[in-house]
Write a structure and sequence with these properties.
single chain; five-stranded parallel sheet; 206 residues; alpha/beta; 10 helices; two-stranded parallel ribbon; Rossmann fold
Amino acid sequence: MSIQVKPDHALLFTGDSITDCGRRDAATAPLGTGYVRMIADDLAASNDVTIINTGIGGNRAVDLASRWRFDVLDHRPDVLTIMIGINDTWRRYDSNNATSAETFEQHYRDILARSRAKLTGQIVLFEPFLVEVTDAQRSWREDLNPKIDVVRGLAAEFGTELIPTDALMSAAAEQLGASAVASDGVHPTEAGHRVLADAWLERVER
C-alpha cells in the first residue's frame, strides 16, 4: 500500500508528545517542531494540503479514545496518522500505573473502529518505539513488545498502512548512537524526527 496525498487533502496527525512536539506553544503552533512539521515542509512544495496536529504530550490510548470525536473525527481527515503507545508502557515504570496489552488493544481497537465507521480516508499507524538509552530501559521491552504486536495486528485487521517505527529507530540508533536519535529513549531528537518523517514520506504516492 501507499499513502495517497492529493491537492486539497486534509492530513491529520495525532498521538502523544512525539506528535505534539510543542504544537500547543505559541511560538511553534500549530504543527510543533517535530516530524509533523518536517512532513508539512516537504509537502508544501508540491501539494496544496492542510496539515492538522492534535497530539497531546503524556497521552495514552485511553486518552486518545476520550477525545477522538472532537480532535479527530470532527476534522474528517483524508489521511489519519496515529502514533500512540509508549506512555502506556512508560507509566508502568515511572508511576506504577500499568496498562495491560489487552486494555491497550481495547482502546486502540475502539478508535480504529470509530474511524472506519465515520471516515472514508486512509489510516496510517506508527508503531510505538523505544531506543534503549539506559540499562533500566531494557526491561521495558517486556511491556512494550506486546503492545507493538497489538498495533501490527490491528493494522492487518483494519487494513491500515503500518510504519515499522521501532525497527527504523533502532537501526538509526545503531548508526548514530541511541542518545543522538532519542535523548531519553522516548523523545526523538531532530535526527530521530527526521527518521519518522522520512519513513512517512517514503510511503507517499504523489
